[in-house]
């Protein structure tokens, strides 16, 4: 999507969420924007996939509205995370601790607020941060 609502290029994936297993991957990046995360959280198989990463204590990163998927898994209780400000109430209602900062790292869960925070969120910057992935 362009500007979150205008259709853009389509890219065909080589697998669907029904064809994959979290055990075969090292980390997960959840997309931002409003449309993609909203559709993703409505897919039970996708939420099972996200939940499996969290249960296996693998790194999970989400930016902007991506944390909606984390809320949907029911696994943010007691975790500190950030997101686009409009998700603050959703995160708090799910038992999470919402913080307003560029990047929040909580034991392998890496979240960020919006595209302007990408320089702090991108892996080149995250490598220097003290992370406890497991």
TrEMBL record:
Coiled coil: none annotated. CDD domains: GATase1_PfpI_like. Residues 13-123 form the DJ-1/PfpI domain. The keyword Ribonucleoprotein does not apply. It holds the Pfam family DJ-1_PfpI. This is PfpI family intracellular protease. GO terms for biological process: proteolysis. Keywords: Hydrolase, Protease. It comes from Micromonospora vinacea.
């Amino acid at each position: 999507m362009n500007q979150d609502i205008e259709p853009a290029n389509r890219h065909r994936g080589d697998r669907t969420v029904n064809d994959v297993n979290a055990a075969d991957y090292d980390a997960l990046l959840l997309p931002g924007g409003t449309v993609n995360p909203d559709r993703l959280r409505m897919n039970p198989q996708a939420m099972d996939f996200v939940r499996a990463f969290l249960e296996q204590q693998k790194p999970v990163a989400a930016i902007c509205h991506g944390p909606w998927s984390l809320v949907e898994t029911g696994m943010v209780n007691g975790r500190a995370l950030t997101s686009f400000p409009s998700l603050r109430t959703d995160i708090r209602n799910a038992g999470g601790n919402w913080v307003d900062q560029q990047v929040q790292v909580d034991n392998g869960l890496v979240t960020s607020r919006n595209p302007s925070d990408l320089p702090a969120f991108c892996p080149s910057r995250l490598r220097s941060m003290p992370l406890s992935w497991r």
